[in-house]
Each structure stands twice: as C-alpha cells, then as structure tokens.
Specification:
It contains six helices and seven strands, in the order αβααβαββαβββα. The protein is an alpha+beta fold. A seven-stranded antiparallel sheet has the order 1-5-6-7-4-3-2.
C-alpha cells in the first residue's frame, strides 16, 4: 500500500492544474463529476452499496513542503495532511489528499484530525455553511493509464482546506454507470 500511496501522491503533487472553465467544458458525464460542487462522497455513495474509506496517511507537513499553488490557495502555514482511498463495493475508486491548514483545525473543525474512516465530504457538507471553490482539473498518467484529477478548496465555517482527488481506473466517472 505504501507504493500505491507514494505513486498517487506524487502524481497529484506534480499535476499541471488548470482552472475549470465551466463554459468551455463539454457537458459530459465526466465533466459533471469534475464540476461537482457538493460532496463527492455523496455522489460516490449513489454508485454502490458500500463505500469504504481506508486512511492511508495522516501527518503534519511544514509550509516549505507545499507547492507554490497550494500556498496561494491556503496561505503560508503548516498543514495537516490526510490521505485516503475511497472504494465502492470493494473497488478502488478515488485517492484523495487533503491539506488542512493548522489554523483551520480550531473550534468546530478540530475534529477533522480524528475522522478516521468517516469521509471528509460527509463531515464538511453536513454543515450549512460549507462550500467549494477554486476547482481545478488535470490529467495524469499512471502505469500507462490517463486518469482524471481535480483539486478544489473546501470551506467549513469560513476556514479553508484543499482537496486533491484522483479518479482511479475503476471509478464510475469513466464508466457512466451512475
């Protein structure tokens, strides 16, 4: 699992992110997934009987580890990093890496560190003031397969976090089955 994590984390960190242009993006099933403003967790749950979250990594990273674009979206501070694999009906669908600035982890949001197998989207979008902005998209090639990725900033109580999502080959985004 370590090789899986490192391969996918590296792909997301080196992705060439482009702003999502809603007017230019064709209306396709894939674009609908990429443009999703609400919980990706809820969208994935609609495609399976069981959605599982496997926590691959939890750690803190110093600001100098963040890319310039990550710092521009989150600010210039250390972050808590959460990496997970979401699987639908035992099929790996989504690798996600979330950066949460340490200043976000206060008051109501301090529980984000302790989510465990609870999906972040379920936690964030259960609040009325949650929102998503700054959606960016990329394609990455892993083991000869071109995969779609998106990155967006989530807000909970006006506190930011950055979620990067890599849609794995078995994900419903590619198969149009929900």
């Amino acid at each position: 699992m370590l090789n899986f994590r490192l391969l996918h984390m590296s792909a997301l960190m080196s992705a060439n992110w482009k702003a999502l242009d809603r007017q230019q993006l064709e209306t396709t099933t894939q674009s609908e997934w990429l443009r999703e403003l609400h919980s990706m967790t809820d969208r994935l749950k609609c495609c399976c009987v069981t959605l599982d979250v496997n926590v691959l990594g939890l750690h803190q990273c110093e600001v100098n580890v963040l890319t310039e674009s990550e710092r521009s979206l989150l600010g210039n501070e250390a972050c808590f990093v959460r990496e997970v694999l979401l699987s639908g009906d035992n099929m790996p669908w989504l690798y996600a890496r979330t950066l949460v600035p340490m200043s976000t982890l206060t008051e109501q949001e301090e529980d984000i560190v302790y989510l465990g197998a609870v999906p972040l989207g379920q936690r964030v979008f259960s609040r009325t003031n949650a929102r998503r902005d700054e959606i960016e998209v990329a394609t990455v090639v892993i083991e000869g397969k071109t995969l779609l990725a998106r990155r967006s900033r989530l807000w909970a109580n006006n506190k930011p976090m950055l979620v990067s999502e890599l849609f794995l080959p078995q994900a419903p985004i590619y198969h149009g089955n929900c």
